[in-house]
Amino acid sequence: MARLVLLCGTSFSGKSTLARALAPRLAAEVVSLDELNERRGLWGGDGIPVEEWVRTHELASAEVRGLPSAGTSVVVDDTSSPRFLRDRWRSLAREAGARFTLVYVDVDQATVRRRWAANRADPRRRDVADAVFEQHLADFEPPQPDEAAVVVRSGVESRVVDELLGVVVERPGLDER
């Protein structure tokens, strides 16, 4: 059965790194909303109007929708905040007949801020404007207990990916939530 793994976490928490490490182990495609926005000529770090984010989510959903029914698993790389977006992905997985797993990359704000500053000093990805970053951190809605998220609190070293893979593949009952 195909899987839809939805990553959730703030900017600079390590979601994209985790997606790249996890996808080959699940034989999954990665759908990155940041990459989708870039193809559209948008960058979240500059601030994107809500209506454009809605459009990006529509495009990502359309991209993902056919994959599980064709037997292809998907890792969705996004901040996945607010909750209604996570609920939409959960519904899409159910409609596509895919197993759903929400993975919350829970990194403390001090670490996130250090990574943000380090990226400014030696850019490995595009910058996030100060006001956009602060608003993002203030508005971020972490998963609630009833969402049954798998929580990752450390880096993406192979041990963590192995443990997460075991949970994603073996943990029963995540699909129904």
Automatic annotation (TrEMBL):
<dbReference type="InterPro" id="IPR027417">
    <property type="entry name" value="P-loop_NTPase"/>
</dbReference>
<dbReference type="GO" id="GO:0005524">
    <property type="term" value="F:ATP binding"/>
</dbReference>
<keyword id="KW-0067">ATP-binding</keyword>
<protein>
    <submittedName>
        <fullName>ATP-binding protein</fullName>
    </submittedName>
</protein>
<dbReference type="Pfam" id="PF13671">
    <property type="entry name" value="AAA_33"/>
</dbReference>
<keyword id="KW-0547">Nucleotide-binding</keyword>
<dbReference type="InterPro" id="IPR052732">
    <property type="entry name" value="Cell-binding_unc_protein"/>
</dbReference>
